[in-house]
């Protein structure tokens, strides 16, 4: 039997860091949603009790460092499953981009193996398992749009923002999430984005208000470390995107665009100096 799962990328419409906790993680307030740029996973049972990962992408680890491997191992151990599985990852989401590619693969693996092995684990429990793998994994289990607090694992579902185009551009640099959080200083932040105001903008279904409430305090670290991310933001604004922000810890920058007639111009303008550019729809 074969199971297929789609693992979409996430963007942070707003991201605020409240303080550093005793366990080393940061207390955050984020509103996240998903975009129509997705990895595809194919899961099939193996006769031997082993986890085998394959991918067309030559640039990700295929051993126990892969988050899909870790997800499969966790669910096997916790539910005492003695069957093996082959997971093929068709990677489309850029890696180490701030788009939760690995986290979404881990979440899709938990969802898929729950079906393949008929474990009937409720979403809430899958999210708790996911939290053991990474802060973004619980959100990726159910997707949609949500307010995430705690270290990102406490989720309150929200309505989806108004439909629009999302243009994503990833400069050719790899950013470490741990490094960005490690360098973050809350006393340096002049303006904190407001989760409450973004939530209201979404409830109003006002595209203009959503663009006005976008903000990510981690830009303060990443933009200083990598000026090319700032240049990419400037270019997207100049080309006419309605709201522009870095996703997560970066380095991907996304632009929200309401008019389809503007998409090709922004896409082509960015392709002039950035190889990895995607124009997709918000997943609503
Ligand atoms: C930047 C975001 O992607 C925004 O959605 C997330 O906050 C990070 O989520 P993630 O990549 O799943 O992060 P994890 O794998 O859990 O943590 C990676 C590292 O980031 C730091 N980290 C992460 C989340 C958090 N709330 N506080 C932190 O300080 C920790 O040093 C941790 O060791
Ligand atoms: N299935 C996977 N897909 C992509 N990267 C993976 C996977 N498993 C492990 N990794 C490793 O995880 C690291 C981070 O990759 P990922 O694409 O998940 O980052 P990210 O998009 O910045 O995540 P986040 O937004 O959650 O911080 C990379 O160094 C990569 O080698």
From TrEMBL:
Question: GHMP kinase C-terminal domain spans which residues?
Answer: 199-274
Q: One GO BP annotation here?
A: isopentenyl diphosphate biosynthetic process, methylerythritol 4-phosphate pathway
Binding site residues for ATP: 94-104
Q: Name one GO molecular function term.
A: ATP binding
Show the active-site residues. 10, 136
Q: Which family does it belong to?
A: Belongs to the GHMP kinase family. IspE subfamily.
Cited function: Catalyzes the phosphorylation of the position 2 hydroxy group of 4-diphosphocytidyl-2C-methyl-D-erythritol.
The protein, known as: 4-diphosphocytidyl-2-C-methyl-D-erythritol kinase
Q: What organism does the UniProt record list as the source? A: Paenibacillus xylanivorans
This protein's gene is called: ipk
């Amino acid at each position: 039997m074969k199971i297929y799962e789609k693992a979409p990328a996430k963007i942070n419409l707003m991201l605020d860091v409240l303080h550093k906790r005793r366990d080393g993680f940061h207390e955050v307030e984020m509103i996240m949603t998903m975009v129509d740029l997705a990895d595809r996973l194919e899961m099939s049972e193996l006769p031997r009790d082993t986890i085998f990962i394959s991918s067309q992408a030559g640039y990700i680890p295929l051993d126990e460092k892969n988050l899909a491997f870790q997800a499969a191992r966790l669910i096997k151990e916790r539910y005492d499953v003695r069957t093996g599985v082959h997971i093929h990852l068709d990677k489309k989401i850029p890696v180490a981009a701030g788009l939760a590619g690995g986290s979404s693969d881990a979440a899709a693996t938990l969802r898929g193996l729950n079906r393949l092995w008929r474990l009937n684990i409720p979403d809430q429990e899958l999210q708790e398992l996911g939290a053991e793998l990474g802060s973004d994994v619980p959100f990726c289990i159910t997707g949609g749009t949500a307010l995430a607090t705690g270290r990102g694992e406490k989720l309150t579902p929200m309505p989806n923002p108004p439909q629009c185009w999302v243009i994503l551009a990833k400069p050719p640099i790899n950013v470490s999430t741990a490094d960005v959080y490690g360098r973050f200083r809350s006393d340096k932040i002049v303006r904190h984005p407001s989760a409450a105001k973004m939530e209201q903008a979404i409830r109003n279904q006002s595209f203009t208000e959503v663009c006005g409430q976008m903000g990510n305090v981690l830009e303060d670290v990443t933009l200083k470390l990598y000026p090319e991310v700032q240049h990419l933001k400037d270019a997207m604004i100049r080309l006419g995107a309605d709201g522009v922000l870095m996703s997560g810890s970066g380095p991907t920058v996304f632009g929200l665009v309401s008019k389809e007639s503007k998409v090709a111009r922004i896409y082509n303008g960015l392709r002039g100096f950035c190889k990895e550019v995607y124009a997709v729809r918000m997943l609503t």
